[in-house]
């Protein structure tokens, strides 16, 4: 194979990687970005970013506002519906009930490499005090109650085989014994979380969780509600 041929084969992969990175940056941004801002975040020339964005725009994966600033497009929602579809379908009614009964944001997080990623979330109605947990948001699996809960679905020996290099937290052993995981001030400053594992047939465990700033409820009672929801989700998943 010639050097030119090798370079031509590598180029599409680089373009795909850059396009995915652009979508990740836009998903994490708090507001629409200019093309120059996005190019800077990607570490590429503005002309390169523009070509990638035109392709993503053609597939409705991003849109530009009247000022030319870029933000995620409706095509991403279509793709997201297909991710763990059965888990999302089973979880959504449970999350809605938890959010409105407990007056807390409720969500399901899944394990993705070294991270926990929010798959689906529900905020309580008629309150301005909820902690927003956007689908697609991620944090290291080694931080926060959802990650501890996911680890607790395995013994330490099993975890070391499944995820070498990611330490098994001592809190996971306690969560495994107690039935739920708890954290405070780990992912978002001043925010607490409770979570229990959800076992997915044929797949990695997920976690169902709530986040809150202050709560009058007994954590054990909240955890019991989470465990009941997890059980119903698991029964629907078969």
Structure description:
This protein is an alpha+beta fold. It has 2 domains: 76 residues, Winged helix-like DNA-binding domain superfamily/Winged helix DNA-binding domain (Arc Repressor Mutant, subunit A), CATH 1.10.10.10; 155 residues, GAF domain (Beta-Lactamase). Helices cover 49% and strands 18% of the residues. Strands 5-4-3-8-7-6 form a 6-stranded antiparallel sheet, with helices on both faces. The longest helix has 26 residues. The protein is globular.
Give a brief rundown of this model.
The protein is about 50% helix and about 20% strand.
Give the topology, please.
Blueprint: H1 3-28, H2 35-42, H3 46-58, E1 62-64, E2 70-72, H4 74-81, H5 85-102, E3 105-112, E4 115-122, E5 138-140, H6 145-152, H7 156-162, H8 170-178, E6 181-184, E7 192-198, E8 206-212, H9 219-237
Antiparallel strand pairs: 1-2, 3-4, 3-8, 4-5, 6-7, 7-8
Helix pairs in contact: 1-2, 1-3, 2-3, 5-9, 6-8
User: How large, in whole angstroms, is the Cα Rg?
Assistant: 20 Å
Order of helix and strand elements from N to C terminus = HHHEEHHEEEHHHEEEH
Continuous helix count: 9
Supply the number of structural domains: 2
Which CATH first-tier class of the largest domain would you pick? Alpha Beta
Measured as a percent range, the helix fraction is: 40-55%
Shape: globular
CATH topology of the largest domain: Beta-Lactamase
* Poorly predicted sequence stretches spanning 5 or more consecutive residues: 1-10
**What percentage of the residues does DSSP assign to strands (E)?**
15-25%
CA-to-CA gap between the ends? 50 Å
Annotated CATH homologous superfamily of the largest domain = GAF domain
Q: Which strands sit side by side, in order, in the main sheet?
A: 5-4-3-8-7-6
